[in-house]
Amino acid sequence: LRGSPPGPYALQAAIAALHAQAPSSDATDWAQIAGLYEVLARVAPSPVVELNRAVAVSMAGGAAAALPMVEALAGSLDESHLLHATRADLLARLGRTGEAREAYERALGLVRNEPERRLLARKLASL
């Protein structure tokens, strides 16, 4: 990323490299990943980039820091199971079980991929 301003592919590669270099999720440099997503959001803004940034923020700074970011995306990603699954996870981490259940149910209603459906159903059942 040295030299000229990085483009979206260089930023995505840097994010992927940080994930690949970490021996575990807990050892991942989530703060740096959140920072890279912040730059990526300026270079190539999209609701999906913002959702990914919110996930990194939640891993670096906690669910309470990320939940407003996710909720701000409701209009643009309301038909995405990923938005609702992310929101459900954050709500569950905050102990807001009833709201987490509703969000998982919404995600289940939108997901089209069977392995993801099974994962979401397990998460919902665990609440």
**Shape, principal axes of CA atoms:** globular
Mean pLDDT: 96
| Proportion of beta-strand residues | under 5%
CA radius of gyration: 15 Å
DSSP strand count: 0
Low-confidence stretches: none
Helix and strand sequence: HHHHHHHH
Oligomeric state as shown: single chain
Separation, N- and C-terminal Cα atoms: 42 Å
User: What level of helicity do the residues show?
Assistant: over 70%
> What structural class do the secondary elements suggest?
mainly alpha
Q: What can be said about the biggest beta sheet?
A: none
In terms of topology, how is this protein built?
Elements: H1 8-21, H2 30-43, H3 47-61, H4 63-71, H5 74-77, H6 81-93, H7 97-110, H8 114-126
Helix pairs in contact: 1-2, 2-3, 3-4, 4-6, 6-7, 7-8
Q: What are the defining features of this structure?
A:
127 residues, mainly alpha, globular
Describe the fold and architecture.
With 127 residues, the chain is an all-alpha fold. The chain is 76% helix and 0% strand. The protein contains eight helices and no strands. Helix 4 (63-71) packs antiparallel against helix 6 (81-93). The longest helix is centred in the middle third of the chain and has 15 residues, at 47-61. The chain is globular.
Concise overview:
The chain is mostly helical and 127 residues long. It has helices at 8-21, 30-43, 47-61, 63-71, 74-77, 81-93, 97-110, 114-126.
